[in-house]
Design goal:
Length: 345
């Protein structure tokens, strides 16, 4: 199974480690007027120089009157291919913002570096947005995310990551829970799970960090889900903007059965770990989480049958079984640290 099946490198899930990322500035826009920036878009990248240029082109094409800056977080500190590709756009003034190096490897370290830099470098921004380097934003993405936060009066907004597959046969997987967005309509929501298309208001960042994302999720993923869960628990309001679309390129390897199975199991592991942190300090917390996992495992065959009837897809139907198995396996130390070998992710 891809990504490994051990908890190598993971610390026990108790209090959050307080180490933050080591950051250096690679390049920035000359005479950048940081005080005028209303929104900051953070863009982590790792060994995807061509794709990060495509993402940046979509950000340059944003249709909005809001003044925004971009922070590219290069997480490959040796060759720095993404930073080298992006730097000329900022140094020429074609884009406003900066390219930084997040020297500590890992998904969470990259996000933390960008979010820390945003708070330090842009004193007046009110909204921070997140897009990944395998995504392309619609022209109205930034405006719709910000206006939704204002209209719904929420602190955090999520949006759909629409998968773009290589061919029609793979595109049949678009309704699989691994790829499908959790909501279809704009409005307040009880939970969000991903940072791939996200808006976070400044007060959330000031209250929740740093470090914002728990470094124990650095190579497994799920640090974003944990951060969003803790933010909701802290009283911040969540919303969804169905119209603020980013399109995510899906490599062929991610349509293979073993990758989908590994991702489904990983989602179950993350669900257990996030729920344990949420219940931390309450009576019988671990027992309640384990009991819930066993109950979900017992119910999963029946849920799978219902999904099979609805979708006629065995691959979609088996998803709740894998998630429930992942939840139980997490109790025995299983973790799929896919980001340790991102080229295989």
């Amino acid at each position: 199974m891809r990504g490994g099946a051990t908890r190598q490198g993971l610390e026990p899930f108790g209090s959050m480690p307080q180490r933050t990322s080591t950051i250096s500035v690679h390049s920035r826009t000359p005479a950048l007027n940081a005080d005028a920036v209303e929104a900051v878009v953070t863009l982590p990248t790792f060994k995807r120089p061509q794709q990060v240029l495509e993402t940046l082109a979509s950000l340059k094409a944003q249709q909005t009157d809001r003044r925004f800056a971009i922070i590219v977080m290069e997480n490959e500190a040796e060759e720095r291919a993404g930073a080298q590709a992006a730097a000329p756009l900022f140094e020429s003034g074609e884009l406003s913002g900066m390219v930084i190096i997040a020297h500590d490897r890992g998904n969470c370290s990259a996000y933390n570096a960008g979010w820390e830099t945003a708070l330090k470098e842009f004193p007046a921004f009110r909204r921070l947005l997140v897009i990944d380097d395998d995504e392309v934003a619609d022209p109205l993405w930034l405006e719709r995310m910000c206006s939704t936060a204002e209209k719904l009066d929420v602190d955090i907004v999520g949006g759909p990551q629409v998968p773009v597959f290589a061919n029609e046969q793979q595109a049949r997987l678009s309704s699989h829970p691994v790829f499908a967005p959790p909501y279809t309509a704009t409005g307040p929501v009880p939970a969000l799970y991903s940072s791939g298309n996200l808006l976070v208001s400044r007060p959330v960042l000031e209250r929740m960090g740093p470090p914002f994302l728990d470094l124990r999720f650095n190579f497994m993923g799920g640090g974003d889900s944990d951060f969003l869960s803790r933010s909701a628990q802290a009283g911040f309001k969540l919303g969804w903007c169905a119209e603020a679309i980013v399109r995510e390129a899906v490599p062929s390897r991610r349509t293979e059965a073993d990758w989908i199975r590994a991702r489904s199991l990983r989602n179950g592991v993350i669900s257990t770990l996030v729920e344990k942190k949420k219940r931390s300090g309450t009576p019988l917390a671990n027992i309640k989480v384990f009991a819930k996992s066993l109950a979900l495992l017992a119910a999963s065959p029946f849920r799978a049958i219902l999904r099979l009837v609805e979708s006629s897809s065995p691959q979609i139907a088996v998803y709740p079984i894998y998630v429930a198995l992942g939840r139980v396996m997490a109790e025995f130390g299983y973790a799929n640290e896919q980001y340790r070998q991102p080229e295989k992710n």
